[in-house]
Amino acid sequence: MAVCIIYHSETGNTRTVAERLSAEVGGDLVAVRDLAGYSKVGMYLRGAPRALRGELARIEPAVIDVSGYDIVALGTPVWAGNPTPAVNAAIGALVGIEGKAAVVFCTSGGMPGKTLEAVTAMLSNRGADVRGAVSFTVQDLRQGAPIDALADLVRQLEKEKVV
Ligand SMILES: Cc1cc2nc3c(=O)[nH]c(=O)nc-3n(C[C@H](O)[C@H](O)[C@H](O)COP(=O)(O)O)c2cc1C
Hints:
Protein name: Flavodoxin
Domain Flavodoxin-like: 3-158
Low-confidence stretches: none
Distance between the termini: 12 Å
Mean pLDDT: 96
Order of helices and strands: EHEHEEEEHEEHEHH
Largest sheet: 7 strands, mixed
Number of helices: 6
Radius of gyration: 15 Å
Number of strands: 9
InterPro entries: Flavodoxin/NO_synth (IPR008254), Flavodoxin_CS (IPR001226), Flavoprotein-like_sf (IPR029039)
Bound molecules: flavin mononucleotide
Helix content: 40-55%
Pfam families: Flavodoxin_4 (PF12682)
Shape: globular
GO molecular function: electron transfer activity; FMN binding
């Protein structure tokens, strides 16, 4: 069962979840880069307002073809209670997402706001079948908390696809 794990991460937390998910369930990792190249301060001064407005970043890769996969996992950092502009753009960059099972996840300082709902809505608008959403806090991740809730979701989807 082919799993594609797509994520944006500026400071490493969302990447950590993505890599741990890949270690547990397998799957290819796709790191989305925001070409704005934010500094730490720039993320707050320029990035957060853009996230709040739901803007799309210029990203690399510009096209993300998931047509060869069965399941797509998409992860975003929370910026100002929203997905990042890079993730907004990544959803637009997906090719072959129609009808595909998907799960979404985010990492935050503890106030994820409407991030998971927003990602779910955008993916659904692209025709994905979003089957679950999991929120992680930086504190939990630092303490090595398991990512079972997310890995189990993917495993469950794999089971359903086999039968
Ligand atoms: C610009 C900016 C805005 C943020 N806004 C929020 C927020 O609204 N709520 C929250 O709980 N954490 C917020 N955070 C914390 C991040 O969501 C958290 O550190 C996340 O794990 C970062 O992911 P990354 O390490 O993959 O880049 C913000 C961080 C940045 C840089």
